[in-house]
């Protein structure tokens, strides 16, 4: 049997995909699951890929985690063009599938939102479909997120969207919108589809985060929802 691929996408860039991917990788490793975490394409620096590398404790090299990286902080396709380089869908798929042969679960983190251009003629949605991955939609829990989350769900093929969990990343200071968004989204999508991830005081303190009962509950629910 092929391993399961979970694809971390989001409503935008900078919404918490890397934090969630890193912690989920650590959580699965603690449970004895052979897990890989990939950020195949990134631009504007490799900080996200380095965070994933740290979460795997040397299981994969940085270049295995992130084969395509570009300097300009632009959509990956545009950043690649500035360096006279090209990212092809077939090569990205081949890389992910080669890693998939070695692990029970593969976490793939996209760059930007679901429809952000990753290379020549493809985006995260195309990768999700081609890899038969289960998407996890990561969103900042703030005013406007209900619309953004539902638009992202609607942009996925229906058969894929039905299984996609939505994770709301909590702000440092809760407000009326952040307190009511989870209930509204759960009423629309179903209570088992929406998870509220607590705000973390230090993104780098993985051990402290994994000691949090609220964090572990979300990670366990994601694992169960995506592999059950």
Task: Report a brief summary of the structure.
With 228 residues, the chain is of the alpha/beta class. 46% of the residues lie in helices and 18% in strands.
Fold blueprint:
Elements: E1 4-10, H1 17-30, E2 35-38, E3 41-43, H2 47-56, H3 62-65, E4 68-70, H4 76-82, H5 89-100, E5 105-109, E6 117-119, E7 122-123, H6 124-131, E8 134-140, H7 145-155, H8 158-161, E9 166-169, H9 176-189, E10 194-197, H10 206-210, H11 213-227
Parallel strand pairs: 1-5, 1-8, 2-5, 3-4, 8-9, 9-10
Antiparallel strand pairs: 6-7
Helix pairs in contact: 1-2, 1-11
Care to describe what's here?
The protein is of the alpha/beta class and 228 residues long. The protein has a single domain, classed as Rossmann fold. 46% of the residues lie in helices and 18% in strands. The protein has helices at 17-30, 47-56, 62-65, 76-82, 89-100, 124-131, 145-155, 158-161, 176-189, 206-210, 213-227; strands at residues 4-10, 35-38, 41-43, 68-70, 105-109, 117-119, 122-123, 134-140, 166-169, 194-197. The mean pLDDT is 94.
């Amino acid at each position: 049997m092929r391993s399961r691929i979970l694809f971390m996408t989001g409503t935008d860039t900078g919404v918490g995909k890397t934090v969630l991917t890193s912690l989920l990788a650590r959580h699965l490793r603690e449970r004895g699951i052979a897990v890989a975490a990939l950020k195949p394409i990134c631009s504007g620096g490799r900080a996200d890929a380095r965070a994933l590398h740290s979460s795997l404790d040397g299981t994969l090299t940085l270049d295995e985690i992130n084969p395509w990286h570009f300097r300009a902080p632009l959509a990956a396709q545009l950043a690649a063009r500035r360096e006279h380089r090209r990212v092809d869908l077939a090569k990205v798929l081949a890389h992910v599938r080669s890693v998939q042969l070695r692990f029970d679960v593969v976490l793939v983190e996209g760059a930007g939102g679901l429809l952000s251009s990753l290379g020549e003629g493809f985006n995260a949605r195309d990768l999700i479909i081609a890899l038969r991955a289960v998407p996890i939609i990561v969103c900042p829990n703030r005013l406007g997120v209900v619309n953004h989350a539902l638009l992202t769900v609607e942009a996925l093929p229906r058969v894929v969207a039905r299984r996609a969990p939505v994770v709301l990343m909590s702000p440092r200071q809760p407000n009326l919108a952040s307190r009511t968004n989870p209930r509204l989204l759960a009423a629309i999508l179903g209570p088992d589809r929406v998870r509220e991830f607590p705000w973390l005081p230090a993104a780098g303190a993985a051990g402290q985060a994994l000691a949090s009962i609220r964090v572990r509950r979300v990670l366990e629910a994601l694992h169960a929802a995506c592999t059950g």
